[in-house]
Amino acid sequence: MIDRITEQPFCQTRVMCRAVDNLELLLSQPDESVDLIYCDILYGTGRNFGDYQDLKPIRNEIEAHYLPRLKEMHRVLKSTGSIYLQMDWRISHWVRCLMDDFFGYDNFKNELYYYNKVVKNNVKLNFQNSTDTILFYTKSKKYNFNPQFENVIKESTLKEYKYNDIGELVRMARTRDYQKKGKTKVFLESYKGRLTNNVIEICHNIKAEYPTQKPKALIERIIKASSNEGDTVADYYLGSGTTAVVCKELNRNFIGCDINPKAIEITNARLDALS
Predict the structure, then answer these.
(1) Please, are residues 203 and 117 in contact by the beta-carbon 8 Å criterion?
(2) To 5 degrees, how large is the angle CA 218–CA 219–CA 220?
(3) 184-211 residue pLDDT tens
(4) d(CA 268, CA 247)
(5) What domains sit in the chain, N to C, each tagged with a CATH number?
(6) Residue in 29, 47, 31, 3 with CA at minimum distance from that of residue 211
(7) How far apart are alpha carbons 24 and 17 in whole angstroms?
(8) Of 79, 107, 116, 130, which residue is the least packed, with the fewest Cβ within 10 Å?
């Protein structure tokens, strides 16, 4: 049942959110209609969050839920598209096996780790868990990817830059071409930053509007890396709507859903606040 649909134009983009079971929405979508899928999926904790019940960490239950949904996600994803599924240690090994079956082992690109610095668990018989796993797959060998950079430069490196005769900050650095010897000029103005790695460290301590709300900075990095302006991004486990908000801000089309009507209400309120 569709409880509410919101379609909001923003910078010539379309944002659509539905309160509906994600399998129902997936089945209604045409083949190869989505450029990027990001989902913060059910973690298999067995917890009752009040507004929704998480899956139990039982392999048969996990497979029964995700098999038909992954099949449809593969179908609706464009040949140049990417998919990111976020979860934790409880079910990541099972989900990766399923994704290998649908997307192919050769199309597994990376395993990202979202590290929340402020998470503290009162554990005494185990290591403190402060990371989520994000599995990154593509549909084919030809896919969109935009390298992301962190604007980080060491103070010691910054001190090496000196003004030249025309006022440009420049330093001499070892050439990256191993066929050549000596040093080359590096201009501070052309410095893009450091390439990001597969560990995304974010201090996420804001007051959440939803039990499993994720930070905008995390989703921004994924959307910027694996989509371009005007592309269509989908989130089938929408939650508090952070993916929809980021898409609206980054000029992406968006389609998403959550079976919990409260999640759609929160999402719509956040989208309205951007208007």
Answers:
(1) yes
(2) 95
(3) 665 555 666 678 888 888 876 666 677 7
(4) 13
(5) 5-152+196-274 (3.40.50.150), 156-192 (no CATH)
(6) 47
(7) 13
(8) 79
